[in-house]
Amino acid sequence: MLLKIIAIFVTVPLLDLLVLLQVASYIGTLETIAIVILTGILGGSLAKMQGLKTLQKFREKTMLGETPSNPIMDGLMILLGAGLLLTPGFLTDIAGFLLLIPITRPILKKAISKYVNKKTKQGYIHIEKYP
């Protein structure tokens, strides 16, 4: 598992750098930098907007005495998406926007839940109830 994480942290930035260089060779360096800055600004405002909506849903669920599992999962995905958007590069920006956009988030959430359930059944993930 640790090797997979290390591979991701090495491979993704290299791929992002290659894509950035390729795009810069087609449209120019300044234009590429401008796009990276623009996606960062747009992503930051989208993350703030989605984060505030999710916080409101969290508060509503807790006020009703319900478990806020859906808003918690949304919040984690928004946080990860915002982090990816802070990383310069088109691949991480695409992944970040997919995590921030409310239309794509449920699809990703379903896939993550399916993966976690599978790993739990296989015994790789242990979930214990808190008293």
UniProtKB/TrEMBL annotation:
Annotated Pfam families: FxsA
Coiled-coil regions listed: none
GO cellular component, one term: membrane
Domain of life, per lineage: Archaea
Record key words, sorted: Membrane, Transmembrane, Transmembrane helix
TM region positions: 7-27, 33-55, 76-101
InterPro entries reported for this sequence: FxsA
PANTHER family named among the record's database cross-references: UPF0716 PROTEIN FXSA
Protein name per its UniProtKB record: Protein affecting phage T7 exclusion by the F plasmid FxsA
